[in-house]
């Protein structure tokens, strides 16, 4: 991929672009910093926007340095959050890190990646070191962080540990002598702190590449597991394919630009010329599933989609719910995970979203006892009832 495309496509902001271009023109391999918070291990395709950018820089000859935030995981990450996260023990950090890296290296070249753990430098950090680090930042700087400021102004709890988080993340850049740090727009404050700290220590400040936060399947809010609008990297092929097919037509150009290498102008032209959105979306779904799960999985996901949605057949495979006794429909919907609560179950029924063996369910007052029946909520969620025998 050409350098100009790497620096512009799927990029929200570069700080400072002129300086980064000069570094790249010098021809020296750069150290590309990417940190992650091991309090979470499951990635969405939204996280992959930045990972794809890292891979593109690797293909230009540069080195990724992946930092496992095993220390900062213990104090919480305030970026975009209004509450602190629970502390993790070492075993949970390692477990999450293993799952994370399994997904990370589906996109980023493992051979061109150096993995570092924060404990390598913070494990020997003294109280004097911590004071020296904290002394390089002011309270005014920390309250420039929107989430900190809002919580402080609202009278909410804002601990000194949380205020240390951006400082610790900034020190990561010092420890590995980063040339460039990558992150989403929601990480801009913390990444800028690294640039400022390096400059204050007389080091060459890191450059910054920020990628956009893509909308979730609802087409408006940024993609996030807690919002229920995510497409997860470890989803089964049929589910991932179906999720992509559920996005609105308006966000397709964004997905094409950030998650594929397809010519975006052609996509926009096709949409503008009354092209078939279904064909474009199927093309997008094939590309995305193939990127994360492989070409065979993409074919599998598409075949399942055609069976269920175009031919109106049932999927060949679906979750099972074991009937040990007769059960009411409401309890079955909740117990099988097709509804989050009894209230949600009643709402789904009232909305006409619940079907039993293809027939719309008109009342909640149903008792189910027969194995082999298929319960469906919406277009994509199925459960087959089986007996204990």
Task: Characterise this structure.
The chain is of the alpha/beta class. The chain contains 17 helices and 13 strands. It is globular.
List the helices and strands and how they pair.
Elements: H1 3-8, E1 13-15, H2 17-25, E2 31-36, H3 48-59, E3 63-68, H4 90-104, E4 113-117, H5 119-122, H6 127-134, H7 139-143, H8 146-153, H9 160-176, E5 180-184, H10 188-200, E6 207-211, H11 237-245, H12 252-259, H13 264-272, H14 277-293, H15 295-310, E7 320-323, E8 327-328, H16 329-335, H17 342-350, E9 354-356, E10 359-360, E11 367-368, E12 374-377, E13 381-387
Parallel strand pairs: 2-3, 2-5, 3-4, 5-6, 7-13
Antiparallel strand pairs: 1-6, 8-11, 9-10, 9-12, 12-13
Helix pairs in contact: 9-10, 11-14, 11-15, 12-14, 14-15
Question: Which properties best describe this structure?
Answer:
389 residues; alpha/beta; Rossmann fold; Tyrosyl-Transfer RNA Synthetase; Structural Genomics Hypothetical 15.5 Kd Protein In mrcA-pckA Intergenic Region, Chain A; 6-stranded mixed sheet; 5-stranded mixed sheet; globular
Task: Please provide a brief summary of the model.
The chain is an alpha/beta fold and 389 residues long. The protein has 3 domains: 3-211, HUPs (Rossmann fold), CATH 3.40.50.620; 225-310, Tyrosyl-Transfer RNA Synthetase (Orthogonal Bundle); 320-387, Structural Genomics Hypothetical 15.5 Kd Protein In mrcA-pckA Intergenic Region, Chain A.
């Amino acid at each position: 991929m050409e350098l100009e495309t790497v620096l512009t496509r799927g990029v929200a902001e570069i700080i400072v672009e002129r300086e980064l271009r000069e570094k790249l023109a010098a021809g020296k391999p750069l150290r590309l910093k990417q940190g992650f918070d091991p309090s979470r291990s499951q990635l969405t395709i939204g996280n992959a926007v930045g990972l794809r950018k890292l891979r593109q820089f690797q293909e230009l000859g540069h080195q990724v340095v992946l930092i496992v935030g095993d220390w900062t995981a213990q104090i919480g990450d305030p970026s975009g959050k209004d509450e602190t996260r629970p502390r993790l023990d070492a075993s949970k950090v390692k477990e999450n890190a293993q799952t994370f890296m399994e997904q990370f290296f589906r996109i980023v070249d493992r051979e061109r990646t150096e993995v570092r753990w924060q404990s390598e430098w913070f494990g020997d950090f003294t109280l004097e070191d911590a004071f020296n680090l904290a002394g390089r930042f002011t309270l005014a700087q920390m309250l420039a962080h929107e989430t900190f400021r809002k919580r402080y102004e609202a009278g909410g709890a804002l601990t000194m540990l949380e205020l240390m988080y951006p400082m610790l993340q900034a020190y990561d850049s010092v420890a590995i002598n980063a040339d460039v740090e990558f992150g989403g727009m929601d990480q801009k404050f913390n990444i800028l702190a690294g640039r400022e700290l390096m400059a204050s220590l007389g080091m060459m400040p890191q450059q910054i590449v920020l990628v956009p936060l893509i909308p979730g399947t609802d087409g408006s809010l940024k993609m996030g597991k807690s919002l229920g609008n995510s497409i997860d990297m470890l989803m089964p092929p049929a589910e991932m394919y179906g999720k992509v097919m559920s996005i609105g037509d308006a966000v397709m150009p964004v997905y094409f630009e950030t998650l594929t290498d397809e010519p975006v102008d052609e996509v926009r032209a096709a949409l503008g010329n009354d092209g078939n959105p279904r064909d474009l979306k199927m093309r997008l779904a094939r590309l995305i599933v193939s990127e994360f799960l492989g070409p065979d999985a993409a074919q599998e996901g598409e075949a399942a989609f055609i069976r269920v949605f175009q031919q109106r057949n049932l999927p060949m495979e679906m979750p099972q719910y074991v009937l040990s006794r007769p059960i009411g429909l409401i309890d079955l919907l909740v117990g099988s995970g097709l509804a989050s609560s009894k209230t949600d179950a009643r709402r789904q029924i009232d909305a006409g979203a619940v079907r039993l063996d293809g027939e719309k369910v008109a009342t909640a007052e149903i008792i189910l006892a027969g194995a082999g029946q298929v319960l469906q909520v919406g277009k994509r969620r199925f459960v087959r009832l089986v007996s204990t025998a």
